[in-house]
Design brief:
single chain, mainly alpha, 4 helices, elongated
Length: 87
């Protein structure tokens, strides 16, 4: 970036910084959402909650369904990526 273009775009720096931070937060959130180990940990915690009676069966079943859907979504995305690389 040249000196003149740098000076002309200087007022946009806070906006670019905010967008960059937003993109990084989104990347981190997606990384955590699509982390299989986090899903396995959550399933173990649900099993422990079942054993201790912290949650009732309906709450546990709903949470397990949501976690398993996320897990299937992750594995579907991985399969799509692998399938796309083969072709």
């Amino acid at each position: 970036m040249g000196l003149i273009s740098g000076l002309l775009t200087l007022p946009l720096a806070p906006v670019r910084g905010t967008v960059w931070i937003g993109e990084k937060v989104q990347e981190q959130a997606e990384a955590e959402y699509y982390d299989e180990s986090a899903i396995h940990t959550a399933l173990i915690e649900l099993d422990e909650a079942r054993e201790t009676g912290e949650l009732d069966e309906d709450e546990i079943a709903a949470a397990e369904d949501a976690l398993l859907e996320r897990l299937m979504e992750i594995r579907g995305l991985v399969a799509e990526e692998e399938h796309g690389e083969i072709e």
